[in-house]
Amino acid sequence: MSQIRNFSIIAHIDHGKSTLADRLIQHTILVPERQLREQMLDTMDIERERGITIKSNTITLPYLAADGQEYALNLIDTPGHVDFSYEVSRALASCEGVLLVVDASQGVQAQTVANLYLALEHDLAIIPVINKIDLPQADICGVKEQIQKELGLEADSAILCSAKEGIGITNILEAIVKRIPPPKGDFQAPLSALIFDAQYDTFRGAVVSCRVFDGKVQPGDLIRLMSHGGVYKVEEVGIFQLQRQPRSALTAGMVGYLIAGIKTVSDTRIGDTITSEADPIADPLPGFKEVKPVVFASLYPVSADDYQALADALEKYKLNDAALVYQKDASSALGQGFRCGFLGLLHLEIVQERLAREFGQSLIMTVPGVRYEFTLTDGQVLAVDNPQHYPEPTKIKKTAEPYIRASIIVPERFVGAVLKLCLERRGSEPHFSNPTPGRVEVRVDLPLSEVIIDFYDKLKSQTQGYGSFDYDLGDYRDSDLVKLDILINGDKVDALSMIVHRQRARQWAVRVCERLKEEIPRQQFRIAIQGAVGGKIIARETINAFRKDVTAKCYGGDITRKRKLLEKQKEGKARLKMIGQVSIPQSAFVAVLKTEVG
Amino acid sequence: MGGSGFPSESIKSEGRFPGLYVHVPFCRRKCAYCSFYSITALHLIPNWLRAVSQEARLYEERFGRFDTLYLGGGTPSILTVKQLAVLLEVLRPLLVEHPQPEITLEANPDDVTPGQLAGWRDLGINRLSLGVQSFADHELSFLGRRHQASGSRRALELSRVAFANLSVDLMYGLPGQSQKAWVEHLKQALEFEPEHLSCYQLSVEKGTPLGHLMSAGRFTPLPTDWEGHFFLLTSRFLEKHGYLHYEVSNFARGNCWYARHNKKYWQQTPYLGLGPGAHSFLGNKRWWNFRSVARYCEALKTGRAPVAGSETLTEGQLRLETLFLGFRTREGVKLEMLGGQPEGEKNLWRLEKAGLVRVEEGWVRPTRQGMLVADSLALLF
């Protein structure tokens, strides 16, 4: 066990986490040329294209240290986004130390701070790494000062590195061996292991990533997953080294995988404890919680005929993403579809994109919302995450919505812009602090619903890319919610309804109507687009009927040509959504989803 | 557009005989907007003439007799009277004797001389379609026409005396053209009291010189809304002056002056097209000839039909054509064609309410506004 080190790399987005991981791998494992690529641990296309990590991945790096000993360094790669902060926390619970990477040109950012807190919470050894020191704008002294003052870490302990250029890699590997303590554990004790991720394998079912704290597990063992009591027979255990490497057993202190005929990853829960069926431990490892979705949206197939295909795709997708929840939904405008719950907006985007890309689904997605609480006059409390389930307005006594605690770090000159943005988004009680001269941390409570749509993009653009943002989910607070309906020629388009704060209803209505006006082509009739709250019209746009749609000449040879053109249009029209005799292109729904307010 | 005097009965009885079209693919020069097949190698005319005669023989049995003959182009008027005589000698036996067949010749104003006119009349041509296009020199040169405004007027004067059934082609919606200027053109044309007018809105086709100019950004076409204004203005103006707006681009001074031949296209009456690039339609089949005089002649030399392609229309396609062609005409579409689906009924009601169609005597007829959006109407049913 003294030859094992379990560590993770944590960083603000774009500070070079994946590149550093690549270098550590290349330095310790002979990677065959054909497997050599960037972001080696990010196996999904979408991760590589966006330069993000979505799934936790692990790899065991064999390292011959300066002391002559060979070590097994288990790198647990974690997702780099707040949507997945629970996954991150479980990965960190499996480590004894972290590399805290800070970009030498950008310094400490909001997620750096949040990550540090997470590491401190788990009582981990922290090795600060200043990355990108090769950049001309690198400010090593400034960053060291921030590490000292803002993070409260010993600045001299920071390792200078350029993952891109391969500078400082050996120093980092040596620091992992020397400064991160070896795992503790009892080989003889009953099995306790922590699940921090699971992936789906078509042939083997769920491949569970876990950290063994006590005891050991080997093929043939009967194990129990403590959260739901499911018992499974272990088929294979091993470690990851780019591929799965089977081992005879996983023992205390080790990080690896386990295959036990578990059908889907939904049967595994991140943070769950694995124990032995024959000799179980009494209490599960601490920190387990059910992951609850916080962002909700409905997915509809573009063509109603594709409903079954979408259902199948979701089922398959779900095999590998336990965090997605969904149930049937129906709209008179869009037909049958699914109401889905996501961990956050990035998760939503990922699901949408993977369904399109890996399963070939053409989707229409409604405007995302959160789960609101309605207290009715009879005292009943309803949780509503779908505008279609908005209660009868006369029966509503009180409404409430979830808030987040946001932390935004910006250079001083942008504080005004940030404050303005936060106020527009109904932020309250901003607190300011100056972690270092010239930089301000704004802590502010914001309604989650105001953050899930383009808040981060707005922040980035208004702070010229300097603003960094992180948040924790907070509590529910009283609100003044209304349901905004969109009507096209007097017909309600249920898929476009949304629950909004009364104060924001008009703004939304105006923007949505404007967007629809841009997107809906002129038709034979005049089209009225209206936004209404409780029967009261608060926004209106009109699309005039088109003035001309006729070919001047139509004789012998023109007829075939014209017919083919019309056939094509007819086909295209079949794919449009007919609402009150108005055909609405899919782009209109997409445009509304992208509507920015404020 | 009033519903009075609509000659639905006569149209139905006319539908019996097929129409015969001959494509004369020769021009002294190509007009900038024209996308029809034509060449300027006039020395090929004799070969073409021989080939057309051969082609006509291939179809002797299949169509029966024709009651209309349309010599279109290209520029049929560049054929000498002698050449035309040869052509008509071959074609005349294919025509019915009663009722008197309509024989139309398309003519370029430059080719109109008293001698030519007399020759055409002697050959039995009884309808002249004069490609005037404009009465303004700058517009004619933009369009790449060979004649000038003075030529337009002289040709009209001569033709008016020689032909009792005269049709005039005009074009509107040219870049920079004002509505006032357009009305002036219409007035000039009306001075000659033509029995028929075809007013085409300039449409810029890909592959034409104008098409190239437009994609190079050398001129901007009229905004769509303006096109609509021109269309409505033309319709109102001509109807006020006693013309019936009986098809999107066609006007007649009474229903007896409708272009009998062209109406066959809109009513799905069979027609045979002879010559390179010509289209034919019979039953549920449509076919078209090679768009090349050389290939056309070569095929016929070896006794083969010069057919480049064909299609067999499904029921659905036939129906779609009936609809979109029908909505182009004052006559409209039979109500029973639209029945069946509740969606269609709803749309019909909305169209009527929006003033785009009128339902009368079992027909759904487009209004003036309806004709303006005729292409889209078919897609609603």
Describe this entry's structure for a reader:
The complex is a heterodimer of chains A (598) and B (381). In chain A, 26% of the residues lie in helices and 34% in strands. Chain A is α+β, with helices and mostly antiparallel strands. Chain A folds into 5 domains: 4-179, Rossmann fold (3-Layer(aba) Sandwich); 192-276, Translation factors (Elongation Factor Tu (Ef-tu), domain 3, Beta Barrel); 295-365, Elongation Factor G (Translational Gtpase), domain 3 (Alpha-Beta Plaits, 2-Layer Sandwich), CATH 3.30.70; 372-479, Alpha-Beta Plaits, CATH 3.30.70; 483-593, Elongation factor 4, C-terminal domain (Alpha-Beta Plaits, 2-Layer Sandwich), CATH 3.30.70.2570. In chain A, a hairpin with a 5-residue loop joins strand 2 (57-64) and strand 3 (70-77). In chain A, helix 7 crosses helix 8 and helix 12 runs antiparallel to helix 14. The model of chain A has no long low-confidence stretch (mean pLDDT 88). With 381 residues, chain B is α/β, with parallel strands linked by helices. In chain B, strand 10 (279-282) and strand 11 (285-289) form a beta hairpin. Chain B is globular. The model of chain B is unreliable at 1-14 (pLDDT under 50). Chain A binds chain B through residues 523-526, 545-557, 559-560, 562-563, 566-567, 569-570, 573, 581, and chain B through 21, 200-203, 224-225, 227-229, 231, 248-249, 262, 265-266, 271, 273, 277-281, 286, 288, 311, 317, 320-321, 324-325, 328, 346-347, 350-351, 354, 356, 371-380.
Question: Care to give the gist of this entry?
Answer:
The complex is a heterodimer of chains A (598) and B (381). Chain A is an alpha+beta fold and 598 residues long.
According to CATH, the fold-level topology of the largest domain in chain A is: Rossmann fold
Distance between the termini of chain B: 23 Å
Mean pLDDT figure of chain A:
88
Q: Assign a percent range to the helix content of chain B.
A: 25-40%
For the terminal residues of chain A, how far apart are their CA atoms? Answer: 56 Å
- In DSSP terms (H or I, runs of 4 or more residues), the helix count of chain B works out at 16
The chain pair forming the largest interface, with residue counts per chain, is:
A-B, 27 and 48 residues
The geometry of chain A reads as globular
Poorly predicted runs of chain B: 1-14
Biggest sheet details of chain B: 9 strands, mixed
Radius of gyration of chain B: 21 Å
Number of separate structural domains of chain A: 5
Number of strands of chain A: 33
CATH architecture group name of the largest domain in chain A: 3-Layer(aba) Sandwich
- Average the pLDDT over all residues of chain B and give the rounded result: 91
Strands of the widest sheet of chain B, in order across it, are 7-8-6-5-4-3-2-1-9
Overall geometry of chain B comes to globular
Kindly provide the radius of gyration of chain A, computed on alpha-carbon positions and rounded to a whole number of angstroms: 27 Å
